[in-house]
């Protein structure tokens, strides 16, 4: 930013730690350190518009604080996030309690696991005998020789093991081995399990030791992680130590136990907050489309004439159907009424045109552009781009008609299948699996509440069995429009589900058909980039690759400009989660100081508290209500309810 805004390239010569270890530091060191401070204020001053004539060196004459306060008044997103910096300091200073004895018990157990698994690995593969001491060494890392030996062992037993591009070293991490099917390969499954178990035990045990060292150095023997705003989305980061990366192992989290007699640990975690935010963003997209149809503009940019004409043609059909007698409009996929609805007829027309364009694209792809001459190849890519644009607009038109038709049938101004899931208080992964199998959660669970709803959901979960895992993977992987190849790798690496490319494509299509409003949100975003930027890329002949820039706005009004569609969707969603948790902390500090004084950690969508025993249950329930209320300020304008559950125990537990 210094180079861009100030035209000053900041020096890097003294960046490394060894430059700061001499007994005497020079004036050069002082100027280097001072430069970071000065440039930070100069950048802020430029961003606040205080240097219209470009004179950042006159810093002492600039009323930065006054300008900053004015900016906070003019920009709601700045006013929202700025107080959070101060909100976090007391939480950081209070710190998390740390049970040293539990830490020692946990580490001792993990050391025993490492020794046992090292012996088992050698028993399963005698060729690893020379490395038994290294495997069992608590403090040793993975040497290049050990990595090579383990890789060769897996290969010898018939497993294809990937290698790195630069050094051709074997990729023997848990996810890399799971990706190539180690978990399901009878020849290497035991070897894989032993290796992964050893690594996890060593990693979590060393992490526990690290946390223990921080507690040991702390005057109050608690840990005081540096909570702060790190990622661009506004999410918090944690360091020294990273208390957001505590493993979900019960024995590890049991180290978080109060050192105050009678106190309890309360964790309040939002349920599926990213998907709830996604449902709300999808509803917001529908309202944006209607507004753009009327004004001809979106994000301050005029829509292309043909695209605006498309939107207005669809809206004309919608208006006619709104005036039609009740019962004319049918849910998409249902049988049209005798007279037929205008939207239904339009949807059939667009669907037919889309199939024609897709067939033209399939025919075009039968030709390899590498076999063409320069002129013909140029024509090929021109045709490809035109067809791709037409197909995207065709997909958008079909989805928009589908969503509007369902909204009319439901009698609502906007529509979301995902919102319906949350309104009915359903388990989202169960509901998704049912939808992907062509079953209607609304019909199955409609009218059920409380214990009756819970009982029926349990029965359906049991009936679905392992199939529910597929719905869960789709929910977690496809919300931000992951493409087929990436989704296939994601399912294999993280969940040990090995679909073929064709199966993955079918599942992705099935999920988008289950939640067409999410597809619509993605297509609307895709069709409306803010600009196109060229990013250095050595793999391209030109040395650059083109990336679309999107405007990602949280439900709290904060705006970001990420590169690429995935980030264009994710930033608004993840940023909304950040807005909600920031709202929670601020609300507690201003209106509930007794609860705020109990906050000890924040982990993404979860808050952790240390509560006095005599008030623990009542305060835990109150915290759940407050957190739901804060989330609903962002979600309920779009009809999506929040849900969170407090988990209260002697130690930190997950609900």
Chart the SSEs and their pairings:
Elements: H1 2-6, H2 27-47, H3 64-74, H4 76-94, H5 100-124, H6 132-136, H7 144-156, H8 174-179, H9 189-217, E1 228-229, E2 236-237, H10 250-253, E3 264-270, H11 273-295, E4 297-298, E5 301-302, H12 305-323, H13 342-365, H14 374-410, H15 417-423, H16 428-436, H17 441-445, H18 450-464, H19 467-478, H20 484-495, H21 501-514, H22 516-526, E6 531-536, E7 544-549, E8 552-553, E9 559-560, H23 565-591, H24 593-596, E10 599-603, E11 606-611, H25 616-635, E12 644-649
Antiparallel strand pairs: 1-2, 3-11, 3-12, 4-5, 6-7, 8-9, 10-11
Helix pairs in contact: 3-4, 4-23, 5-9, 11-12, 11-22, 11-23, 12-14, 13-14, 14-22, 16-19, 19-20, 19-21, 20-21, 21-22, 23-25
Which terms summarize this structure?
655 residues; DNA binding; EC 2.7.7.7; DNA/RNA_pol_sf; Alpha-Beta Plaits; 12 strands; single chain; DNA-directed DNA polymerase; 7% strand
Report on this model:
The protein is an alpha+beta fold and 655 residues long. It has four domains: 2-74, no CATH class; 100-226, no CATH class; 256-294 and 548-655, Alpha-Beta Plaits (2-Layer Sandwich), CATH 3.30.70; 300-416, no CATH class. The chain contains 25 helices and twelve strands. The chain has helices at 2-6, 27-47, 64-74, 76-94, 100-124, 132-136, 144-156, 174-179, 189-217, 250-253, 273-295, 305-323, 342-365, 374-410, 417-423, 428-436, 441-445, 450-464, 467-478, 484-495, 501-514, 516-526, 565-591, 593-596, 616-635; strands at residues 228-229, 236-237, 264-270, 297-298, 301-302, 531-536, 544-549, 552-553, 559-560, 599-603, 606-611, 644-649. The longest helix is centred in the middle third of the chain and has 37 residues, at 374-410. The radius of gyration is 29 Å and the shape is globular.
